């Protein structure tokens, strides 16, 4: 469920005509030790920040 939620929330308010997402999920027997109120929230923010950084570097722009 986490990869689906991450992708579903990834684009936010942006319109993206063509998008491809490759997901690799890992399942372990370890349980989480904290409460997650918004599944995929931290993962989505990390992915979007990484995308913005990469695009800014490609375009020679400040990521901010």
Class based on secondary structure composition and strand pairing: mainly alpha
Which regions contain 5 or more consecutive residues with pLDDT less than 50?
none
Tertiary shape: elongated
Distance between the termini: 31 Å
Strand content: under 5%
Topology:
Blueprint: H1 2-10, H2 41-58
Protein model, in words:
The protein is mostly helical and 64 residues long. Helix content is 42%, strand content 0%. The protein is built from two helices and no strands. Helix 1 crosses helix 2 (41-58).
Keywords:
single chain; mainly alpha; 42% helix
In short:
This protein has 64 residues and is mainly α. Helix content is 42%, strand content 0%.
